[in-house]
Design a protein that fits this description.
By secondary structure, the chain is α+β, with helices and mostly antiparallel strands. 39% of the residues lie in helices and 16% in strands. β6 and β7 form a beta hairpin. The C terminus is likely disordered.
């Protein structure tokens, strides 16, 4: 068979121990055999399923990754330990697995099958991951849940009210305060993890009231483009530029025209790369502050920007 199988299952079908020890079979876990090589996280999870007790689902950051929600670059979800949660019986204790005990009566908790795997619902996975993920990464996941980043419907376009309800239901559990802080910093209408990183960097420096993905119109009310982040009153658009903006010819030319169109509409663009969000962040933040103040805005934002951000909720 192509799928991973339990040794106990094979023996029950009459397969002898010599066959189970042959070189064409791999043993990804004790008591499991498979012919195929695991490629990626989903395959690794499938290799574990045959020996998971009933009522066990993938949870925490493993579930977030299966839902294709953003996780920190340094977190090895592909090769690191797998998180599983059991709601009946004891904690799963296996090499390469982190077992958790869950409760089926947790408010809002539900289970799905994602690519054939048993997975806890995305909001619960987000709340569970408050133990282990830094605040900024929890905000990024919340932005993704409220946005449309995941290809799976249950993990996208979630109203902020539902995120708030889940935080309330989480009560005083471990790291609940971090979860509340993440919700307070999250915003709807965010399109990428880098936009979240850029916004949080500026907000920590006191540049608040920024509106994610704000439409910019010209004097004839025609759409010029969507600003990644905008100080509406100062007419400053802050744009994250990934490497494809440099390496793709059509994107590069479009960016040049877009910059001119923004300026013709009375807007000033600030473009940011990964370096501006990392080693050059102080220079980047100072540039944004100078522009916002110089164009009549405030580094702490103003009522117009706050109203636009509130309307997106």
């Amino acid at each position: 068979m192509d799928r991973a199988f339990a040794v106990a299952e094979a023996r029950a079908l009459g397969v002898g121990p010599d066959r189970l020890r042959r070189a064409d079979l791999r043993a990804p876990h004790h008591g499991v055999r498979t012919r195929r090589t695991a490629v990626g996280l989903a395959d690794r999870c499938r290799d574990l399923v045959p020996v998971l007790p009933p009522g066990t689902v993938f949870s925490h950051t493993t579930a977030l990754a299966l839902w294709q929600l953003p996780l920190p670059r340094g977190l090895d979800v592909e090769g690191g330990p797998l998180h599983v949660e059991s709601t009946g019986g004891g904690r799963v204790r296996r090499a390469g697995v982190i077992g958790h005990i869950g409760r089926v009566d947790t408010v809002g908790r539900s289970e799905y099958r994602v690519r054939g795997l048993p997975v806890v619902d995305p909001l619960t996975a987000w709340a569970q991951s408050a133990v282990g993920l830094p605040l900024e990464d929890l905000v990024t996941v919340a932005d993704a849940l409220a946005g449309r980043w995941s290809p799976f419907a249950p993990a996208r376009g979630i109203p902020f009210g539902q995120l708030s309800d889940r935080v309330t239901a989480w009560g005083s559990r471990r790291n609940a305060s971090v979860l509340r802080g993440a919700l307070a910093l999250a915003r709807p209408g965010v399109w990428s993890p880098q936009e979240t990183r850029m916004r949080l960097l500026l907000e920590r420096a006191g540049v608040t009231g920024l509106v994610p993905n704000h439409p910019v119109d010209d004097e004839h009310d025609r759409l010029v483009g969507i600003a990644d982040l905008a100080d509406v009153s100062a007419r400053v658009a802050i744009e994250y530029q990934g490497d494809h903006h440099r390496t793709d010819r059509d994107t590069y030319r479009s960016d040049l025209q877009r910059r001119e169109d923004f300026e013709d509409a009375g807007w000033r663009q600030v473009q940011a790369s990964d370096d501006d969000l990392g080693p050059r962040s102080a220079v980047f933040v100072a540039r944004v502050q100078r522009l916002v103040i110089g164009r009549g805005g405030s580094p702490a934002g103003d009522e117009m920007s706050r109203r636009a951000a509130h309307d997106q909720r």
